[in-house]
Amino acid sequence: MERGSQDPQIITTKLTIPPHYLKKIIPRTHVYAAMEADLQRPLILITAPAGFGKTTLVSEWIRQRQLATAWVSLEPADNDTLRFWCYILTALSPFLPDLTELIDAWQNEQPGLSIERLLTQLINTAITLAEDTLLVLDDYHTISTPAIHQALTFLLEHLPLRLHIILITRRDPPLPLARFRVQGKLTELRTHDLRFTNEEATIFLTQAMNLDLSSEDIIELRKRTEGWIAGLQLAALSLQGRTSYASIAHFIQTFSGINRNVLHYLTDEVLQQLPEDVQDFLLQTSILERLNASLCDAVTGNSNGELMLEWLEQNNLFLNALDNQQRWYRYDQLFLELLNHRLKQKYPDLLPELHHRAGAWYAQQGMDIDVIKHAIIAEDLELAVQLIEQHAWQFIQRGEEALVALWLSQLPEASFTSHPMLSLLQAYTAFLQAQMELYEQALTRSESLWQQEQHNSHMLSRVYDLRARAALYRSDGPQIVHYAQQALDLLDDEHSSPFYCSSLLHLGAGYLYQGDLIPAAHYLAESYRLGQKHGYTTIALAAACYHGLLQNIQGNLRTAAQTFQQVCGETHAIATWPVIAAHVYLADVYYEWDDISTAQLHIQQARSLSQQIQNEGPVTAQLYLVMARLAWLQEEREQALTYLIQAEHSSQRFGPNPTFLARIAELRMRFLLAQGDLNAAQQWQTQYAPP
User: What are the residue boundaries of the structural domains of the chain, listed by start?
Assistant: First the structure.
């Protein structure tokens, strides 16, 4: 997987401490004290469900202490490894000016700058901090990429004394929290720490929300909400329209806490008390994840967006400012969900038009991802398909196959029956996710559609190239050669095409699997030459890797090791399978040389890189196989057998692979014979006889 050349767009509002929107901020003295006492620890984890005031708590504490703070507000789009660390580095750069060059190198894919090296340079730079500095990652629960969690763990384990990380999240992140607790590196604030006390609830309801309530009413309301801040706010908004004591008392006595139905009921009551034009504004703009005045005007067709946003903010109607200039906003997520529900109920026929208007605004701003999203929802399929076919390969090259797969999953089946490129994209993403039935259906459809069109032989070659790749993942030499040759025959005059270069690679690998080393060497060398010439780095590295395997088969282990070392030296910020494969094959060579410590280093590097890639590759099974051999050598018997099972499962993800199964069986039989279990070894030999 290779990163594309486009730098991620940094949204600067995500790097600002969120401003307050309540007239009165409730002092949380006891919570501040807990944070203050443990400020010297590397990690402060603040975890609680939505609506417990986590972000407000941290931002107000920072303002009171006037702490040096780098703030990043996260969202699902930040699951891209490149984008995530660009935000982290950019947020820290005001305090560490030397990071500027590192940011440029990371964004521009400087050769040799892996995630490990990036973090190492960040850590070494942060040692120079002269004062305590906070790195706050808000809404960390939106991050699900394992590679990001792993990299953050590495950073936390080597964090300089002056740098502290605060994670604000709705759930525990997949970090080694138990180890951090034992090591004294972790401070935790959880739901019970964040619940409002009676005193805090009193200040909130009477001063922030301007309610005239008795102490008994406040205690009862606090009890029924269990100190849940959002619940108190929802209740307060409903109470603001009640004037009689009997009405207030009845409402409080019948309030049932944080049940989702109650949340909907309260929000409905708030909405019903608002002017009709405000309600319509809220409903129509609920299709947006972020709002500004211009975008709201485009969606509603009015020109009062700025006034409406100001009114909503002044009345504390679940509107969160995303910058200090009050230009961008977002609705509270729970409120947004209800608005969406009401919109579909009240104006179902208006939905497509609203999304069309939003898409038109985003198109003017050049924000194609948002255009595609709204075009799909608006059922403007012609525009959606056009943009997906135009931009999908760029996103795939950047390692964002999941985003392309999401777009494709939202399109109706009819869209694929008349668009061969769309079907090819569906086949490609399905293949990467090992959805082999969908892969075959989509690829067959793409092939059929292109065969019906004239002058599209170069497009049909992409189908055969993908079939060759699938055969490669199954170690099926004859099929690799067959499909790769078909692709090359259709691309005879397009030697600069990446698919021509890829097909040469597959043809060489196919001959290698068949044992035909002379044609294998020829086609691999040609693939490497063209890959280097035209900048197809991943293909060139893959060709070099297969050439190293060829040298190994010829008995030239030292030459092969040098080839693999050359590939390993071409590491990139985002991992690629050829680099991972080179580390695996080097580990195998060093194992044969009985240099176990070096073999383990390369396996560790291969595992670290592979965790940055969300999909398994053709070398994953080989990685588990080498790990099994090393584990067995260290007398970790059960672990070695577990690795063998993982190797077996991985090798069959892309279809039957009897060749690799035979290799697994051979290694398992060696293990069993070493244990003296001759009967079990004979059973394995019978079950997995080489083809």
Answer: 12-194, 198-272, 615-691
Residue written as tokens 């009862």?
220
End-to-end CA distance of the chain: 32
For domain 12-194, the CATH class is alpha beta
**Amino acid code (one letter) for 7:** D
Beta carbons within 10 angstroms of residue 59's beta carbon: 20
State the burial class of residue 115 (Cβ atoms within 10 Å of its Cβ: 0-12, 13-18, 19+). buried
Is there a contact between 460 and 451 (Cβ–Cβ < 8 Å)?
A: yes
Helix%, strand%, coil% for the chain, nearest 5:
65, 5, 30
Structure tokens of 495? 């030697």
**Is the separation of the CB atoms in 234 and 266 below 8 Å?**
yes
Q: What number is the average pLDDT over the span 410-426?
A: 90
Q: What is the pLDDT of residues 622-652, one digit of tens each?
A: 999 999 999 988 888 889 889 988 998 888 8
What pLDDT score does 7 carry? 45
Measure the CA angle with vertex 133, ends 129 and 134; round to 5°: 145
pTM score: 0.57
Contact 96, 129 (CB under 8 A): yes
Highest mean pLDDT among 48-62, 268-282, 595-609: 595-609
Q: What is the pLDDT of residues 237-286, one digit of tens each?
A: 878 777 677 878 877 777 643 435 445 645 666 677 688 999 999 999 99
Task: Report CA-CA distances (Å) from 425 to 296, 309, 390, 407, 431.
Answer: 34, 41, 11, 11, 10
Q: According to the 3-state scheme, what is the secondary structure of 154-185?
A: HHHHCCCCCEEEEEEECCCCCCCHHHHHHCCC
The predicted-structure confidence for 278-308, as pLDDT tens digits, reads as follows 999 999 999 999 999 999 999 999 999 999 9
Q: What is the DSSP secondary-structure string of 41-80? A: SSEEEEE--TTS-HHHHHHHHHHHHT-EEEEEE--GGGGS
The span from the CA of 565 to the CA of 581, in Å, is 11
Whose CA is closest to 543, among 559, 554, 529, 562? 529
Q: Are 635 and 623 in contact (CB under 8 A)?
A: no
What pairs with residue 45 in β-bridges? 167, 188
